Amino acid sequence: MNAVMLDRDVAETYAEWFRTLSDATRVQLLAWLAQQPAPVPVHQIVAAFPVSQSTISHHLAALTASCFLTVTRVGTSCRYAVNPACLEQFPDAADLVIRGGVCCQAPCQPVSPEATTTESERP
Q1: What pLDDT, in 10s, does the model give residues 53-79?
Q2: Does 17 fall in a domain?
Q3: In tens digits, what is the pLDDT along the chain, a chain of 123 residues?
Q4: Does residue 122 lie in a domain region?
Q5: Which of 39, 52, 56, 105 has the most crowded Cβ, counting Cβ within 10 A?
Q6: What is the span of the domain harbouring residue 44?
Q7: Interaxial angle between packed helices 53-65 and 24-34, expressed in degrees from 0 to 180 and rounded to the nearest 10
Q8: What is the rounded distance in angstroms from the CA atom of residue 59 to the CA atom of residue 88?
Q9: Closest residue by Cα to residue 69 from 99, 97, 43, 32
Q10: CA distances from 103 to 14, 70, 95 (A)
Q11: Is 52 helix (H, G, I), strand (E, B) or coil?
């Protein structure tokens, strides 16, 4: 059998994705945010979940660091949305790990909050 070895850097990225989604609250947050029509401020996310703001912030930070969410600063507020590019790649990553094969794209890279634009910077 000539199995192709998954590139180590790609495997590390996929492992981080799976670790991030190993928490039920994070899965719930991601699923809820995927249903929202626009980026959502933290206070609305906190209102939708029966956990503390600090817990929500912790989970949002993990989902953002793993590239599942994007964050946009609007004044002093942060708004979170699903990162469609990374979510599009996640099923391929799961399939690749389970069935084997070679990935056709490099995994999505996280976007730092500093790299996002604020509403006042938009054209």
Answers
A1: 999 999 999 999 988 999 999 999 999
A2: yes
A3: 566 777 888 888 878 888 988 999 999 999 999 999 999 999 999 999 999 999 999 999 999 998 899 999 999 999 999 998 876 776 666 666 666 654 444 455 554 444 444 444 433
A4: no
A5: 56
A6: 8-114
A7: 80
A8: 21
A9: 32
A10: 11, 23, 10
A11: coil
Instruction: Quickly tell me which residue has 């070679």 as its tokens.
Output: 102
Does any domain span residue 123? no
List the Cα angle 66/61/11 in 5-degree steps. Answer: 15
The token pair that represents 39 in the structure block:
């980026």
- CATH number of 47's domain: 1.10.10.10
Q: Answer yes or no: are the C-beta atoms of 12 and 108 closer than 8 Å.
A: no
Using CA atoms, how far apart are residues 24 and 40, in angstroms rounded to an integer? Answer: 20
Residue 120 included in any domain: no
Could you tell me what percentage of the chain is helix, strand and coil, using 3-state DSSP and rounding each to the nearest 5?
A: 55, 10, 35
Whether residue 111 contacts residue 83, with contact meaning beta carbons closer than 8 Å, is answered with yes
* Six-digit token string for 105: 């794209």
